[in-house]
Design brief:
By secondary structure, the chain is an alpha/beta fold. The protein has eleven helices and nine strands. The structure holds ligand BJW and zinc ion. The site of ligand BJW has 34 residues, from helix 2.
């Protein structure tokens, strides 16, 4: 095992050097991907049999062209996913990230996820780089759309559902997410870049680090001198760049990291 790779099952596996770095940090950025919600039952995109892009074709569902060509198929698929998220609960990793904010000087939370599990775990001011499933808007004029209920009836995953029409211009309502080829919301992206450039520790949790420009953030932090910690059960392209690679499920690793930090802060002296 290389000297920056750690298998984490409990707080005692967390290296003292890592709790030292966290305890001394002025500004921590937590950067999350689909893996942090995996233990809540939300499928990831790229790893494993049940992942979304192994079951469905990204090009026919997650692009503006797909929505123009077949709005009912795309809207139905996103309504199915919104229903699944509504039924899911935050897991130990979401809760540990929310708690961690109380144990470090400053914490910014940046997620690529379109679910609201960080918010439901108690994290305020989450930056959503790829939008939110519950923030639909008009495709033509951009007017926000209020979903009638947070947990819609579960359509079948391939059942077409025609999108509602905009009350202002009649255009189709689209999911409030960022599709391939679309720009990230500018304010959120600038905020994320600024946080990555100013932090002294960045913790990347549950992302394959394959989708850009979001995947630039840990590199940006590293270039500016931050320590980078990665939490993932599998290797990623970031392994070589990180100071600490914590192998394991986020729902195990993050509570362990939190407990190790709390133990250090409670220790006399
Ligand atoms: C666990 C775990 C557990 C499992 N605990 N961990 C070539 C080079 C660079 C860029 C490009 C390129 N070709 C094309 C591009 C651009 C493209 C891109 O990056 N493509 C790559 C795939 C190659 N990017 C874009 O198009 C972006 N826009 C853009 O570039 O705009 C340019 C522009 C500028 C100005 C004007 C106009 C345009 C937009 C990207 C949008 C991404 N959208 C999606 C879908 C959102 C909607 C939806 O939900 O349907 O966002 S794609 C999908 O990937 C989703 C995610 O947020 C994103 C990242 O995925 P994530 O979170 O990393 O998940 P996975 O599944 O990949 O990984 C999960 C990880 O968890 C794994 O590592 C597991 O091991 C781990 N895991 N269980 C911890 N229990
Ligand atoms: Zn409209």
């Amino acid at each position: 095992m290389s000297d920056n790779l750690f298998s984490i099952r409990s707080a005692t596996d967390v290296p003292a050097a890592l709790t030292h770095v966290l305890a001394g940090a002025r500004h921590v950025v937590v950067f999350t991907g689909a893996g942090i919600s995996a233990e809540s039952g939300i499928p990831t995109f790229r790893d494993g049999k049940g992942s979304l892009w192994k079951q469905f074709d990204a090009k026919t569902l997650a692009t503006p062209e797909a929505f123009r060509e077949n709005p009912a198929m795309v809207w139905g698929w996103y309504e199915y996913r919104r229903a699944a998220i509504g039924q899911a609960q935050p897991n130990g990793a979401h809760l540990a990230v929310a708690q961690l904010a109380r144990h470090v000087a400053k914490l910014d939370l940046i997620t690529q996820n379109v679910d609201d599990l960080h918010e439901r775990a108690g994290s305020p001011d989450v930056t959503h780089l790829h939008g939110r499933l519950d923030r639909a808007r008009c495709q033509d004029c951009g007017l926000g759309w209020e979903h009638a209920c947070t947990t819609p009836d579960m359509p079948r995953d391939d059942a077409p559902v025609p999108p509602p029409r905009c009350t202002r211009c009649g255009g189709p309502i689209r999911p409030g997410v960022v599709w391939f080829g679309e720009a990230l919301p500018q304010h959120d992206w600038l905020r994320a870049m600024q946080a990555a450039e100013q932090c002294d520790v960045l913790i990347s949790i549950g992302t394959s680090s394959m989708v850009y420009p979001a995947a630039e953030l840990p590199h940006r932090a590293r270039t500016q001198g931050a320590r980078v910690i990665q939490v993932n059960p599998a290797p990623t392209p970031m392994d070589a760049v990180c100071d600490f690679n914590l192998r394991g499920d986020a729902g195990v690793v993050m509570p362990a990291v939190l407990a190790a930090l709390q133990a250090r802060q409670r220790a006399p002296g």
